Every structure is written in C-alpha cells, then in structure tokens.
C-alpha cells in the first residue's frame, strides 16, 4: 500500500465506524417504529373479568402442587424423554450429513424449508398418517431439528480455521480431509450444541401433548383447562426438574444407554397403512378444484377465496403479533440484562437474576401463552407477552454474558449513569444482533400460537386439520414457510449490512 493509500485508509477509519454506528441506530429506530405500528393494530383486549382472582387460584396451586393425582404421570414423562432423545439423535445424524455438503445451495434451501415448519405443524400432518404413535412424536421433532442442526453445524464448519486442511496434500481424499482436519476443530462445539438442542427437544416433546400425543403437555393442558392448578403445577415442576438437572445427568458415556432405553420404551415402528400414506400425499393434499377435475380458473378462484378468508388475515395477524413481540422483547432485554451483568449489583442479586432468567427462558413460549390465555382471555396480548418474556430472557442472558468482556475506566460512574452512558451504548449493537438472529424464531413461534386460539396462521391451520381440508393445511403451512424464509433473509441481510454478528447456536 502506498503512503497516499495508507493515509486515505487511516483517514477513512473513523467515518466508517461512525457510518456503521449510524446504520444500526437507524435500523433500531425503524424496527421500533414497525413494532409500535404493529402494537397499534394488535388486539390487546383483556377479556377476563377478574384475572386477578384467577391468578390467585393459580398461585395457590403452585404453592401446593399435587404429584399423586395425575394418572400415568411417569409414563408421560418417559414418553416425553423418549421422543426427545430419538428425535434429537435422528436430527443430529441427518443434520450432520447435510452440513458436510453445506456449500450446496439446494441443501441450504432444503434445510431452511424444513426448519421453517414448527414441530407442532409437522405433528398435525404426521398424525393423519401415523396417528398417535412414536413415529409421529419422533419425526415431528427430527424433521425441523435436522434443518436446524444442518445450519448450525454447517456454519461451525465454515467458520473453522482452514489452515489444517490447507496444509494437507492436495491429493488427499475429501472425506479424509474432513474427518482429520476439519471435524476435530469443531467437535466440541458440535457436542455442546447437541446438548442444548436436546434441551429444546424435551420442551418440544412436552408441547406435542397439546395435539394429543401422550407427553407431559397433554396432562398439563388438561389440568389447567379444568382449573386443577395443583396438578398442573406438579407437572410443570417435574418438567423444570428435568431441564434444570440436564447438566448433571447428561453424560457423554451415558448417551448410548439413554438412547437405547428411549428406543426400547417407545419403539419408532410405523403401524399405519401404506395406502393411507399414499392417499394422503396423492389425494388429500391436492387442491380441491383439481381433485374434482377443475382447471386453472377453478384453482385460481379457490386460491382467491382462501387468500381473502384465511391466508391474508393469518399472515397479517402473524406479522403484527411477531413485530409487537419483537419490540417488547428488545425493551425487556434492555431492562433485564443488568440482572446478571458483573457490572451491576452484587453476587446475591446476580444469582437471583440468573435464576429468574433461567425460569423465563426455560418455560416454552407455548406454555406461557397458554397460561396467559387462561388469565387474560383470547387476544394477541397473551401471545405477545409469552414471546417477549421467553425471548427477552434469552437475549438478556446473552447480552449479560457479553457485558462480561467490557472493561470500564477507573472513574466510571455507578448506578443509572453507568447503565445509560457507559454500558448501554457498548452492548446495544450486540443486543440488536441477538434480536435480529431471534426474529425468525419469534415469527415461527408466532404462527404456531394459533393452535391455542390466537388468530395467527396456526389458527387456520388447526381449523383446516379439524375439518379434514388438508389441501388448505398444506397451502397455509407453505405460507408460514415463505413468511419465515422472508424474515430470515431480511434479518440476515440487516446483520450483514450492519456488520453485526452475535455468534452461532442461538
């Protein structure tokens, strides 16, 4: 580089930084505006006349849980773990295979498509073919998780140091180079992420009970709908105990034992009929006009009717709820991350804050939305609160961990001034990156909340399944896929433009 070029580069350094900072400020501003507009259109009505009294009854149930009144409690727990173990193992295997060829565009597109469909939607489809069986529970987890594993494993491999592979002879076989020069660099990250994904699978397995599978969620929904909050609290405490103790009972040497036990307890055998599967794929999923011998005109009229009555309302409500939840998530993250940051409070307050965030981010959004629906009644408010609390706790945890790397000057102020002037400006870009990374997840969960009665795309999907109109189900699920892919592309483009990188595995 010539001296003149060096001077131009040096002189451009600070303007580039300032330009980048102004970009993420503008992005934050417009995302906040979009969230406020969404909240203005959202249905935030509290339909219950006395949510306080219901909350009191629920609190009494949580203070006196009944662990002995739920029939088949331990069987439900075993099913929950069996589905989670088998689904995670299958997903990790196929995700790993896809990650090996992650450079192929079709592989990335396929992985993005299958992970864009929520486990509950996969479960609703599989129920029509395999019924209330192990196959339904395992595949409902394995299919979308395979896409997630493929993405994360593929990105781990892309970011790994390429020097060891480059040092090997060019004549070496690609498979040997992969296993000896690339895989060892990311193997520990693979194992760590596998443990996290198993935790997610246990939550997903429990939620599958809401569509009838015999897991913890089935009994939890029944108990809370009947007002038996002591029974529901016992089920929830048992669920928390499994998740919180995962780090102690999940040992690498015991993984084969757990997996074999899961298969022995719930063998994933397909007990349905092949002709049912063939009919479902070749007849039930075909649009009604084509089944009746109609042409393109009838097909277009069918689509236009469905667009007006279900597709557009579902897409709009999903987008409104998701953007409103994203805004509230950001605000909660800003308020909560100091609870665990070493730059604030003391050891006692940070321990309490850590416990609060663990409970919030461990409780699935679906469970939280279900509880808020009981308290507040059917509207968008339960969904927004549930998504914001769960995701806000995750983002706050990640932001608090990031703040551990900050070093403040010796005369830095304390209290609110430290938060506003010293810490907040330095963590906000990373917090925005975390939010953008989680945006796709928020939209994915927003759609599925419709199964609880909130008028997002999931509401119309659940209704079409109940009416056995599976051609509508397929089109509505494809709409959720397209929406999630669009949000993911927008989020990825914004992160790239703003040079924001939160890290993998969120």
Domains, number: 2
Task: Let me know the largest β-sheet.
Answer: none
Mean pLDDT score: 86
Q: What is the N-to-C succession of helices and strands? A: HHHHHHHHHHHHHHHHHHHHH
Characterise this structure.
With 506 residues, this protein is an all-alpha fold. It has two domains: 22-64 and 289-506, MetI-like fold; 72-284, MetI-like (MetI-like fold). It is built from 21 helices and no strands. Helix 3 packs antiparallel against helix 8 and helix 15 packs antiparallel against helix 19 (415-448). The protein is globular. The two termini are 40 Å apart. Mean pLDDT is 86; it is low at 1-17.
Topology readout:
Blueprint: H1 3-41, H2 51-63, H3 73-100, H4 105-115, H5 119-130, H6 134-159, H7 163-167, H8 174-207, H9 216-225, H10 229-244, H11 246-249, H12 255-265, H13 274-284, H14 288-291, H15 296-336, H16 347-362, H17 365-376, H18 381-403, H19 415-448, H20 457-466, H21 470-498
Helix pairs in contact: 1-15, 2-10, 3-6, 3-8, 3-12, 4-6, 5-6, 6-8, 9-10, 15-18, 15-19, 15-20, 15-21, 16-18, 17-18, 18-19, 19-21, 20-21
Any descriptors?
disordered N terminus; MetI-like fold; mainly alpha; 2 domains; 506 residues; Binding-protein-dependent transport system inner membrane protein
In short:
77% of the residues lie in helices and 0% in strands. It is mostly helical and 506 residues long.
